[in-house]
């Protein structure tokens, strides 16, 4: 499972990636989770099962969906992002991936 998170610069999202990786590892789930700035998305998204957008770039949802019509795109809930709730964000992504 490959999950790509995109935000304004990729820095704060990097912390959330760590929390998501910790949860995936604790569940024995193999996952490739990475963060990048929205400007780097094109080169980083190859092979992704889902794109998660940080709340600060949520306004780009429609554009990202148009750019990558074959990949589900989801905006991370502001509360989950602020609390760095890696477990919930991972579970949300996993649910969407498995339902597609």
UniProtKB/TrEMBL annotation:
Family matches, as PROSITE patterns: PTS_EIIB_TYPE_3 (PS51100)
| Name of the molecule in the record | PTS sugar transporter subunit IIB
Where in the sequence is Phosphocysteine found? 7
A GO molecular function held by the record: protein-N(PI)-phosphohistidine-sugar phosphotransferase activity
Top-level taxon in the UniProt lineage: Bacteria
One Pfam family of this chain: PTS_IIB
Q: Which residues form the PTS EIIB type-3 domain?
A: 1-100
Q: Which InterPro entries match?
A: PTS_EIIB-like_sf, PTS_EIIB_2/3, PTS_EIIB_3, PTS_sugar-specific_EIIB
Q: What is the lineage of its organism?
A: Bacteria, Bacillati, Bacillota, Bacilli, Lactobacillales
Key words of the record = Kinase, Phosphoprotein, Phosphotransferase system, Sugar transport, Transferase, Transport
What is an annotated GO biological process for this record, any one? phosphoenolpyruvate-dependent sugar phosphotransferase system
